[in-house]
Amino acid sequence: MKSLKLKKLCAVLMAATISTSLFIGCGSDDKSTGTSGSGSAATSGQDLMFNLGEDPETIDPTLNTSSGAGTIIVNAFEGLMLLDESEQPTYGAAENMEVSEDGLVYTFKLRQDGKWSDGEPVTANDFKYSWMRALDKATAAEYSYQLYYIKNAEKFYNGEVSADEVGIKVVDDYTLEVTLESPTSYFPQLLAFPTYAPLREDIVSANPEGWATSPETYICNGPFKLVKWDMKDQLVFERNENYWDASNVKLDSLTFKLVTDETTAYSELKAGNFDMVNSVPTNEIQPGKEEGLVKISPYLGTYFFAINVGKQDTLNDDVKKALSNKLVRQALNLAVDRQEIIDNVAKAEQVPAYSFVPKGIFNEDGSEFADKEYYDPTAMDENIAKAKELLKEAGYENGEGLPTFELMYNSEGAHKDICQIIQQNWAEIGVNVELTNQEWAVFLNTRQQGDYQISRHGWIGDYVDPMTFLDMWVTGGGNNDCGFSNAEYDKLISDAKVETDAAKRTEMLRKAEDILMDEMPIIPIYYYTNVRAWNDNVKGIQCSTLGKIYFKGAYKE
Asked: Any idea what the CATH number is for the domain that residue 461 is in?
């Protein structure tokens, strides 16, 4: 790839991005571990079988919100920028980027050899179409807010300005000009996110609801193309011969298996039928590490429970009243024994969460953003006593008068075991819980619609900045499944997005998290680690600390 040719300010912005990044790649020693880079050009028989586990709700880049399906998408589509093994932006569909002196205007030159999987050229209009589609409220893209950094994008979404006023300009077929609302140091990182991927208007508009469900219409511009989709079984991809860098794609085919049972999938790996699995049964983690199959690495994400505080149309009055009381929510948070969950269920070197923003995001001075402990997750005797006091203050002494809460989780993985521990924890303070579960795709929709009381949740960063965790909770946010709303919180997030002074911006974000952790629409449990497993002959995989796996450089020895 050509080196970045940026003006002075862009260099500053990129440096700021670098200073807040994490180095995690599958080529080193984590879940993330394998061997990066080297290997011969593609040879016959390079077929890799990866068990994704979840049955994706959608693989439409505009509509997807799942990190699992995100892995499929980033191997099929390519944005203007890519992320390298250290999460740094590098050129993808663009071959050059220039940034104005004020940091507001980005000009991208697209590769003239960039092509879609059907051989048509990738043009600047493909990016504009895709982004404007995400900003069309009728599309119902939950990640539309990721484009609000673009001038007038949010106003267009809300119907306040016309499409012509949005800061996306097609200069010519291979030149795209993007104007931002304010300088944003991590904007080059955002450009690698699936919502910023290009789409073909003629393909999508011809079948808006079904284009992403068929190999015939799933036209993509990345290293792999979809050739077969057996629902609930597998998605089969082959090397995209029209990809601009196809000569460096080593795999002939890449199959995403959809076996949801971890034990079954891991057995298939050990039997040699799978090359790699996306999760590992808890009881297999330690022996798998000793065998060299299982790899554990940092993961920029938080496992938590969401409380329905604002999408309450389906809740009865007793539940609505209880969950709307922040003292009750604070009590529920304090009563959870996070270390018990980690020691007895998770068992993968997770860290008990004492905030929502996880460790691994650094301020300009090198300090962790997540340096404030809102409670001590290990002081359980004191926490239980405080939780009982809070329930008494809320009018529910010893849990009397509280309804039985419904705790919802998805069937895949060890979520049931975690919920059972929480059920026992809450019983200690007089709170009764009924467990309920759903398959992944149904579960996601149920939670998004607000048809739940308390639900299992998890969030993986989309880029390396606290904003990726905090802006999801603004009023009406696409991923705000809690329905949380706080005017002061909204203003802090809005102001932080346009603040150019790093110290002031950090302080705004800290104040926002203070509000979030006081209001407690969420209950953080632990900071994720990545736990995957693959055979020793699998090399060149790039595993992002942001949750996605890139197979462009993968091969088998």
From this structure: 3.10.105.10
What's the CA gap between 301 and 459, in Å, rounded? 5
pLDDT tens readout for residues 307-319: 999 999 999 999 9
Give the relative orientation of helices 502-519 and 326-334 as an angle to the nearest 10 degrees: 90
Give the pTM.
0.82
Same domain, 492 and 396: yes
Whether 2 maps to a domain, the answer reads no
Structural domain total, the chain: 2
Indicate which CATH number applies to the domain containing 181. 3.40.190.10
Contact 530, 517 (CB under 8 A): no
Residues 224 and 352 in one domain: no
pLDDT tens, residue by residue, 124-175: 999 999 999 999 999 999 999 999 999 999 999 999 999 999 999 999 999 9
CA distance 485 to 516: 10
Rounded-to-integer distance, Cα 24 and Cα 32, Å: 6
Whole-angstrom distance, CA of residue 278 vs CA of residue 409: 19
DSSP 523: E
Can you tell me which residue has the tokens 């800290």?
510
- Cα–Cα distance, 4 to 58 (Å, whole number): 34
**Residue 234, domain extent:** 8-291+535-556
Beta-bridge mates of residue 407:
435, 454
Closest of 339, 363, 481 to residue 418, by C-alpha: 339
CA distance 408 to 416: 9
CA separation for the pair 235, 51 (Å, rounded): 10
With the C-alpha atoms ordered 442, 447, 448, 449, is the resulting torsion angle positive or negative? Answer: positive
Q: Is residue 1 part of a domain?
A: no
Helices (H), 197-254: 201-206
Q: Tokens representing 409? A: 């989780």
Amino acid at 499: E
